[in-house]
Amino acid sequence: MRNFPVSRGTVAGILKGYSGLSAAVFTEIYSTILRKSSANLLMFLSFGVPILCFVMMYFVRACTPTFGEDSAEHGHFLFIQVASVVLGLYVLITTILDPIFHFSAEVSYAILVGMVVLLMAPLAIPVKMTFCPLRINQPEIRNQQVASSDETLQGEGNADKTEPLLKSSESSTYLGSFREGDEASEVAMLLAVGEGAVKKKRRPKRGEDFKFTEAVIKADFWLLFLVYFTGVGSGVTVLNNLAQIGIAQGIHGTTILLSLFSFCNFIGRLGGGVVSEHFVRSKTVPRTLWMTCTQIIMVITYLLFASAISGTLYAATALLGICYGVQFSIMIPTVSELFGLKHFGIFYNFMSLGNPLGAFLFSGLLAGYIYDNEAAKQHGLGLITSSISCIGPNCFRLTFLILAGICGVGSVASIILTKRIWPVYQMLYGGGSFRLPQTSTY
Questions:
Q1: How far apart are alpha carbons 48 and 422 in whole angstroms?
Q2: pTM assigned to the model
Q3: What is the pLDDT along the chain (442 residues), one digit of tens a residue?
């Protein structure tokens, strides 16, 4: 966020997009290199991932940000976005084809190599910048030097012209300085008294740097948390129970269903950042408007899940994956724009609590309780065997209806939040790009 303050949505979309693809990447590593061994997977997660983080830590550091339009930077972001989309399609297609054609070990290793190449593709940008740095046009430098020298000469000429020909006497100079000093001391005294009488610490305004204690008393902070909580909390509930949902509706091979959700989640994260960045610059539209739109779609999607209409499960899963991913890439830049970057880490981690909190409340308590009750009813009636927990649309119908109502509340809260922060975005992006707030009245 601090290195790319004018491309916050794009950066958030890319980072969260790769985060969404990480599960599919680890699954490929688990099935190929680790030979589907749980012990090897735990060793890899315990030692391999931390070592990789330590190795890459050197390259993650603060740099001088650009506050204007940079065509080279835009091209680099575009390259990473294209590479990530190709990687997502590659993983999705190979996951779908694997159970159909039963790839051999050699083909699986070749697929893994291709995935690693696509995963490391963004490294081409620093390599290119190192060996082919951008060259500044020398004539432009000369013109700037000539212009600066002309301004210097002109300033010296003006100084010569304004110098008085006759200097005042020492007595008049002394008296004048005495009077000026006396007046200056009186003014300084009045200012000091005034400051002491009315001095008051000014609280930050939206768009400036907030402390956590200053942000938690703002309505916008809790509105944003509520919107994010309802969106990701309901979405992660479906994700955690997606295999059981598929089995309940008669789909036993749920791998494709999970892969479809994962890919669409990635598209939502990446696309949410790109789309919000475009409209916030061109139309000064608050990013939370897209949270409103996607949560309204999520309401329709949950009703579609509850209806259990034949042939709609895959479409509903894809729609939900996209809308679920958008919540992440919108929340991150919105927090940084409303409450500043100085304490962004604290705000981001607090907002991120919405995901596990929603999983605990909606998935662990709500969906699990309803599912177990329906399964107990079916076992009591002898409708299913002991090997199958629950079948039929009633296993999750009530859960989906409740989730639709929760997202409806989130949509209303998002509309209120968008209306409240619209002037802030007009102030921040009124010139077409991000501007640091100076004399905001919001």
A1: 45
A2: 0.78
A3: 778 877 888 888 998 888 888 888 888 888 888 888 889 989 988 998 899 888 888 878 777 777 666 778 888 899 999 999 999 999 889 888 888 888 888 898 999 999 999 999 998 988 888 888 766 554 444 444 444 444 444 444 444 444 454 454 444 444 444 445 555 555 555 555 455 554 556 678 888 889 999 999 999 999 999 999 999 999 999 999 998 999 888 887 777 888 889 899 999 999 999 999 999 988 999 999 999 999 999 999 999 999 988 889 999 999 999 999 999 999 999 999 999 988 999 999 999 999 999 999 999 899 999 998 988 888 776 656 555 578 888 999 999 999 999 999 999 999 999 999 999 999 888 866 666 554 444 4
Could you give the C-alpha distances from 285 to 6, 79, 245, 268, 429, in angstroms and in order? Answer: 15, 26, 37, 18, 9
- Asked if 383 and 189 touch (Cβ cutoff 8 Å), the reply is no
Beta bridge partners of 82: none
Residue 184 falls inside a structural domain = no
Q: Which domain holds residue 26?
A: 8-58+69-130+207-428
Q: How far is 219 from 206, CA to CA, in rounded Å?
A: 11
Q: Which residues contact 192 (CB under 8 A, 6 or more apart)?
A: none
- Rg of the chain's alpha carbons, rounded to an integer? 30
Strand, coil or helix: 206: strand
Tokens 């060259």 identify what position? 135
- Count of positions (residues) in the chain: 442
Number of domains in the chain: 1
Cβ–Cβ < 8 Å for 284, 221: no
Signed CA dihedral, 294, 295, 297, 302: sign only: positive
Question: Residue 346 and residue 214: Cα distance in Å, rounded?
Answer: 12
Q: What is the largest CA-CA distance in the chain?
A: 115
* Residues 343/209, Cβ–Cβ less than 8 Å: yes
For tokens 């992440």, the residue is 328
Place of tokens 């929760």: 406
Residue 187 placed within a domain: no
- Helix (H/G/I), strand (E/B), else coil: 258: helix
196, exposed or middle or buried, with CB in 10 Å at 0-12, 13-18, 19+?
exposed
Q: Is residue 182 part of a domain?
A: no
For residue 206, the cross-strand partners are: 208
Of the candidates 4, 8, 13, 71, the residue with the CA atom closest to the CA atom of residue 425 = 8
Residue 349 lies in a domain: yes
What does the alpha-carbon distance between residue 329 and residue 267 come to, in Å, rounded to a whole number?
Answer: 11
Q: Which residues are CB-neighbours of 303 under 8 A, at least 6 positions away?
A: 400, 401, 404
CATH assignment at residue 418: 1.20.1250.20
